[in-house]
Prior knowledge:
heterodimer, A: mainly alpha, two-stranded antiparallel sheet, about 5% strand, B: about 325 residues, mainly alpha, two-stranded antiparallel ribbon, 13 helices, binds CIS-heme D hydroxychlorin gamma-spirolactone, binds protoporphyrin IX containing FE, electron transfer activity (chain A)
Amino acid sequence: MFEYDPVMYSRILTYVTLGFHVIFATIGVGIPLMIAIAEWMGIKRNDPHYTLLARRWARGFVITVAVGVVTGTAIGLQLSLLWPNFMQAAGHTIGLPMFMEVFAFFFEAIFLGIYLYTWDRFKSKMKHFLLIIPVVIGATASAFFITSVNAFMNVPQGFDLVDGVLQDVNPLAAMFNPATPTKISHVIITCYLTSAFVLGAIAAFNILKGNKHVYHKKALHLTMVAGAIFAIGTAVIGDFSGKYLHEYQPEKLAAAEWHFETESEAPLILGGILTEDNEVKYALEIPYALSILAGGSPDTEVIGLNEYDPDLLPPLWVHYFFDLMVFIGMFLAAVSVLFVFMSWKKGWNPFNRPLAWMIVAGGPLAMLAIQSGWIFAEVGRQPWILNGVMLTEEGATTSPHVDLMLILFSILYAVLGITCVTVLRKMFKSNPVEHELEERGLSHKTAQ
Amino acid sequence: MTYEVIGITVLWFFLYGYLIVASVDFGAGFFSYYTKRTNKNHMIHKIIQRYLSPVWEVTNVFLVFFFIGIVGFFPSTAYYYGTALLIPGSVAIVLLALRGSYYAFATYGAEDSKFYSFLYGATGLLIPASLTTVLTISEGGYILNENGNVQLLYGELFGSLYSWGVVILAIVSVLFISASFLTYYASRAKDAKALELLRKYALTWAIPAIGMGIIVFFLLSQRNAEHFHNMLDIWWVFGLSFVSFAAATFLIWKRKNYGLAFVFVMIQYFTAFFGYGAAHLPYLLYPYLTIYDGFTNETMAISLIVAFIAGLLMLIPSLYLLMKLFLFDADYVEGKR
Lengths: 448, 337
Ligand code: HDD
Ligand code: HEM
Ligand code: HEM
């Protein structure tokens, strides 16, 4: 039916691996921070509920880290296997951040091992808390380094290309390119946001199931306060990302917004469909909003798609992924801010059922936003693998059998994903909070 | 020393590090499974768990270090090996993924299941077998490069005595290294039963390990004469390796100083591994790729080396802390904490 095309299969396989990895990577970056906050609160307020929270989160975290590590190993090797030409070129320029990323992992792995096995080993609780700090730093640093590689793919710089040969390489300039600041800060803060919401969703779900223990309320409050801060940060940095695109990758922004004519006072288009002759129908238009997103004022001129060679444009369906991400971002901000506001106002009940359900939905939605954001960012860069320097098809492998590998890895991830969920559920079911609270002599604090 | 040689030396160190720590891990998985089948698991289960639990993730990073590092220092390897190794590389990834995640599932998650421990044991032997293919291929004759199309010759690979010799060498070495380390660990834990069993395993695998080493050495002479002659030129390195092997086995047999015995095992493999590697130079992939034509630009080389030194300054104290808490802390090892 299809003609075998290693480029296409490599692209799909890359997406499958990265899409699966990024679920665990996001959690891997964000959860250590949440654990650190909970343990800190436990010490400062001398409240064992928070300490137990940190303990239980850490226990589940080990499982997701394991999957994060093995899928990360997979993508690390797969980049060489599927994109040998790209990696050959890229190795000359971005070998440095990739190399440093591994150091960050190393650092994180060592301290995570120590942290997990020393809960009751030190007399001072503070000492144990200090051990999570390197884990937080290591995880965030690895996101920092790997994302700088991805930033480079969007704005390659720090080298000269003379007759196909790389010259005058400057690794630091390659790493700190114009895409780096917005990209890295947006990725890191969304990792934190997503982790806060995933943990918050679990707490909210327990409350909805009728668990009245104050432990769950504390968990929900902690995650939603953190979530509100991160959600506002995400929206602010997302706005900066739009300004970055306007400046350096206007074609990506135009594709995301189905913006064909170069003009000022450009409207932001939400949803809708595109007809054969590029007319936008059934869409919600917010006047001036695109100009404001791009340049901060309605009279910013936004470059349209018609200015570009149609062969070098990304597919226009990225629009939907951009919209989905932004919509979820707004939703998460609204939900968490509402929760914080209601807990702050006397006499309002932040633990009401509708709000709790929305928080439960927030967990998976945040993950969906991560996926949509990456699809938008990566597909929006097409057809380039190194923007303006190397086409995706030039970077790909020529080997036969990539299709077989795609099947092999799809099975692998399905098996890993299913087992991971089963194991996590079993783990927390066989040792419910109530049981553990009692075991540790904390259950008398139930009513409050 | 040139940057090229520094680069490959750094990477070779990490591969050696992986060889040791991963062998301990792989072998432990196999012994754990094997003793379960023979109902002796209660004797060594604790020892293996206590050592492995805090360090398995660190083991994996050694490998990641190597393959990310080699693309940084020698970007052309991505092109040659990347294209040729799609299938064996993917198989190795799948095995590593199953092993790592199922280890975590079994240890931290649900109850012990037979299936998990089978996976853990089987992958312990299959992974070294599949990873060593890379070393085999580097000897030349298994890869064809025709007008820009790199191909792995599977018939040649599976039909060659040398490649099977290397696979067996890898497996028996894993078992030997692992057993001699665990013997030492059991002696620190003052666990007499485990010690007896593991000591027996170490002695069992000692002869096959050295025997296969010698056999592969001579098989190489047919595979890659140039490499073989380079190795003969530094015969004393391999002599040293043999002496260390003899010293290690003697100590274990005499039930003396298991710690020193393990140090000798490490020296045995260090000398053999670096001797093998040094004689292989300048080739990364015989005869297509040398360290000189596959090397990155000078600026990148310098920054990688600087990053490497800075990284080591950070890692060595952390590794020291890890070892102090879990390897050299008598109470922990003995299971009192
Ligand atoms: C929870 C996840 C999440 C949420 C709620 C948002 N984003 Fe996002 N966004 C990401 C997760 C993400 C991401 C997965 O992290 C991306 C993909 C690639 C990248 O750099 O970050 C991304 C990329 C990304 C880009 C492309 C950057 C580039 O290609 O270099 C823009 C312009 C925005 N985002 C803008 C926004 C705006 C205006 C949001 C409104 C609130 C928003 N994002 C919410
Ligand atoms: C080291 C940094 C990265 C490298 C070298 C890299 C490399 C690539 C390559 C080679 C492709 C194939 C081109 C294509 O099919 O469009 C690709 C696509 C993709 N990448 Fe990245 N990527 C990096 C970072 C990321 C990250 C961190 C993510 C998030 C998980 C990601 C998500 C994706 C997705 C979703 C695609 C699919 C695009 C498509 O379907 O066309 N990438 N990336
Ligand atoms: C922005 C997207 C990404 C983030 C935030 C991220 C983050 C992480 C984190 C936190 C881990 C540790 C596992 C855990 O704690 O769960 C991890 C593992 C790993 N990641 Fe990713 N990653 C991303 C994309 C990539 C890409 C594109 C590559 C390919 C070069 C990659 C390579 C690896 C490797 C090799 C590991 C395993 C390291 C080990 O053995 O410890 N990651 N990643």
